[in-house]
Structures are given as structure tokens and as C-alpha cells.
Amino acid sequence: MLPLNLSAKSPMQRLKRLLIFFCFLATCAIGHGQEIDETALRLTVEGYRYYYGVGGKPLNHARALRLYRQAAERGDAEAQFIVGGMLYRGQGGDPDRRNAFKWLLKAAEQGRTSPEALNIIGGSYLRGTYVPQNYIEAKKWLGLAAEQGHVGAKNDLAYILYNGLGGERDYQKALELYEQAALRGDVLAQANAGLMHATGTGTATDRARGYAWYSLAASRGNTIAAMYRNNLMLTMSWDELNQAQAIAVDLYRRIEQLESDPGERPAMGQP
Questions:
Q1: What's the CA gap between 103 and 99, in Å, rounded?
Q2: φ, ψ for residue 66 (rounded to 5)?
Q3: Which of 4, 66, 136, 182 has the largest CB neighbor count within 10 A?
Q4: Single pTM value for the model
Q5: 216-248 b/e (C-beta count within 10 Å ≥ 16 → b)
Q6: pLDDT tens digits for 135-188?
């Protein structure tokens, strides 16, 4: 399925673009000798109308969810993705994350997904939530989410690589991922980056940089990082400590700048 971009300003404008998109999709499919499930397309358009309350329909998420689910059961990837998102958030009913996982996975296997959805799938395999634990599958889905910039996925993937779950340990790649997540403000990643620099794991030992990452994590409430920072400080000279604190301030400024401009984050399972 082609990527769906409905960035128009209002739900009604998006509905018009949705109808144009489906007409274009049908034309392409017919040109390639493919069959179009017109019923699934109709259900998806009706679901959209009820989701936003446009096209003469009242806003009704429960009704929208039923329509999208009917399209999803017919194998429509877009509908499967939306149903997964609505169930995960509890739109149209109580949250049902077990079934949300099922529909998000079905959609992802057809190529319709988002960084957040990929992270949910990978995290579920990593922790054995809603599905039996499987490190190989976790690594695959988290890797895809990490490639698309998902911070939580980078942290979880680093954990997998650090511990060699489902394969060989890769300390260097784990540190790279931890630092990427740390620069996006992930406190656990900051603490882990500090540990790896302080102990020379995946890199040369750098107590000053280890202290800096510990200090950042501690400033955001991580008490374990604060303890490690204080213990590390006892082994450092004044020059080393001054250098470490300068690094911490520089990292702090970089993080603040990145957090003030997070960029566009695609919604998970939203029409």
C-alpha cells in the first residue's frame, strides 16, 4: 500500500484527500491487474467520517472503530493500523493492548506502520508482553523503530546488544545507541552511557565523560546515577573534575536544544 499523507488542515480536507487517494489507489491497482476490495475501502472512508465527525456523520469513535475493524478483518493494512492505534489508546472503548498488538503487527507485516508502532511490537517481544518473549523478533522490530529515530527503541535495542540477547554482544553499537537516546533526554540511557564511559566498555575509559553523563541523569532524578557519579568523583583529580563538569554543561545545552525542537512525530494508528 502506498504511504498515506493526510496533512491537510481540517478533517474535511483530509477526507477529500482520502477519497482522492483511494481513487488513485484503485486506478493503479486496476492498471496492474490487481483486485481492489471496494468494501474495505468503503468501510475505511465511513470509519474516517465517524472518527472526525465529518461528511454528515456525528463524531463517534465507537462506531468508527467497528467500521475500521470490519475493514481490518478483510485484510486492509491501513485499517489494521488504525484499529491497533485506537485499541491501544482506548478510543471507541476501553484500552485493549493485547488486541492492539495483534493488529499493529498485522499492519506492520504488510508494511503499514510507524516508529511508535514498531517500538510497541519490538518492546512486546522483548518483555514477553501480549506475545511470548523472543529476542530475535524484538531486535528486528526495535531495529526498524530505532532506524526511524524512536528514542525508546534505541534504548531497548542498546540493552539487547549490550547483553547479547539473541546474538553476539556489541558494546560499541550499544554505546552509540545509548548516547543517541541520551541526547534526546532519556535518563536511563544517560546513566548507561555514563557507566560505559566510566568503565571503558565499548570505548576507551573516559572518567570525565562518564561523570558528565552520570551528572545529567542525576539532575533528572536518577538516584543510582547520582551515587555512581559521587563514587567516581572520589577517584578524580580537580582538573579531571573541572573537565567533567564542563562536558556535562555542554551536553546539557545540546540536549535542551534538541528537546526544544523534537521534529514531527507521526501519530500511531490515527487516521
A1: 6
A2: -65, -40
A3: 182
A4: 0.84
A5: bbbeeebeebbebbeebbeebeeeeeebbeebb
A6: 999 999 999 999 999 999 999 999 999 999 989 999 999 999 999 999 999 999
